[in-house]
Write a structure and sequence with these properties.
With 349 residues, the chain is of the alpha/beta class. Helices cover 21% and strands 26% of the residues. It contains 9 helices and 17 strands. The two termini are 15 Å apart. The structure holds NADP nicotinamide-adenine-dinucleotide phosphate and zinc ion (ZN). The site of zinc ion has 5 residues, from loops. It comes from Bombella dulcis.
């Protein structure tokens, strides 16, 4: 089907309107009219080819909320008119041990990205959510629970589940001390979710500048990583640290902040780490771990949890025409809120 999105044609160019064809819907597919799409820092990495894998032209966007406008004859989970959501994956093998466990993000054959992946049948590059329509197999469209404000909920599909998954894996809850490095889109969700799970929560930020925001989100305190004395005083203070920093950075200063058996879960930067010492790991049985988004079941669990607890990200709604300005702001890392594109601002002609 013919539709329109905002694409980038090279790492140096701004995103601009782009007409393209979505694949023809198959019997197990739904067609969505996209209503909202969140702006993740991964979209920026992808657009700028930070991971060296981008093929252009490309349309980013993997925090997608929309309305079903067509459902294939084999679709049983959704019907026309339903509000559904799509995150970072649109397909996986569905048969390997990981897919059967509901951890499609670790599919043995590789998860198929909402952008960055290729359609298994047509072999064409997948195009993301900064667009008017999406065609997706029914298993990868989540049910949007009633009561969640859909104009704000889109970031739950990536920022939400990417922080929810390590919080659940390492059992954040009452009595657990959780720290979150970087107060951006992922960071604010990590704070809200860890607080809702009953943990004691600290934001570790580059300076004190975001202190008010951190406290308003429910954190107990903000620790400025630039304050050496405060960092020393915080030694052995956390069971779990979630690191959302989007650029190459030294984790050495954060390791002594973990208590014995504590874990730092890297969810931000993907790529080489600067040299670091094993000393704080050995002298404290501390662990460095990583975590990739979350599975479909886990994402639905998160959406239902957020609906029950009335948890939504702090967002700033923008028109699609403002996406390049939003990217510039995101790159600076100065704000903590998530941009969400109101897709009604994208006209089809
Ligand atoms: P974001 O909104 O830009 O937030 C990142 C935060 O990190 C900033 O607000 C800032 O917080 C801090 N920061 C920024 N630049 C920094 C620097 N040079 N040094 C130290 N700290 C810095 O980004 P996001 O959307 O939350 O995404 C964060 C990262 O997670 C990105 O790299 C993204 O690709 C990745 N990601 C991974 C997954 C996964 O599955 N693992 C999923 C989604 C996104 P302070 O001002 O508080 O220091
Ligand atoms: Zn993302």
């Amino acid at each position: 089907m013919r539709t329109i999105g905002f694409a980038c044609s090279s790492a140096e160019e701004d995103l601009a309107p782009f007409h393209f064809d979505r694949r023809n819907p198959r019997s197990n597919d739904v067609v969505m009219e996209i209503l909202y799409c969140g702006v993740c820092h991964s979209d920026l990495h992808w657009a700028r080819n930070d991971w060296g894998q981008t093929c252009y032209p490309t349309i980013p966007g993997h925090e997608i909320v929309g309305r079903v406008i067509e459902a294939g004859p084999d679709v049983t989970r959704h019907k026309v008119g339903d509000i559904v959501a799509v995150g970072c994956m649109v397909d996986s093998c569905q048969t390997c041990d990981q897919c059967r466990r509901g951890e499609e993000q670790y599919c043995r054959e590789g998860m198929n990205g909402t952008y960055g992946g290729f359609d298994v049948v047509e072999k064409t590059p997948n195009m993301g959510g900064y667009s008017k329509h999406l065609v997706v197999r029914q298993e990868f469209a989540l049910k949007m629970p009633e009561g969640l404000d859909i104009s704000k909920a889109a970031p739950l599909l990536c920022a939400g589940v990417t922080t929810w998954s390590p919080l659940r894996t390492w059992q954040a809850g009452p009595g657990k001390r959780v720290a979150v490095i970087g107060l951006g889109g992922l960071g604010q969700m990590a704070v809200k979710l860890a607080v809702a799970l009953g943990a004691e929560v600290t934001v570790i930020s580059r300076s004190d500048r975001k202190k008010q925001e951190a406290l308003a989100l429910g954190a107990d305190q903000l620790l400025a990583s630039s304050n050496e004395k405060a960092m020393q005083d915080a030694a052995n203070g956390f069971d779990l640290i979630i690191d959302t920093v989007p650029v190459k950075h030294d984790i050495t200063p954060y390791l002594p902040l973990l208590d014995i058996d504590g874990t730092i879960a890297m969810v931000g930067q993907i790529g080489p780490l600067p040299e670091s010492s094993s000393l704080p790991l050995v002298y404290g049985r501390r662990r460095i771990a990583g975590s990739l988004i979350g599975g479909i079941r886990e994402t639905q669990e998160l959406l239902d949890f957020c609906a029950r607890k009335n948890i939504l990200p702090d967002t700033k709604t923008i028109a699609i025409q403002d996406i390049n300005k939003a990217f510039d702001e995101l790159e600076k890392g100065a704000s903590y809120y998530r941009f969400v594109i109101d897709m009604s601002t994208l006209k089809e002609d």
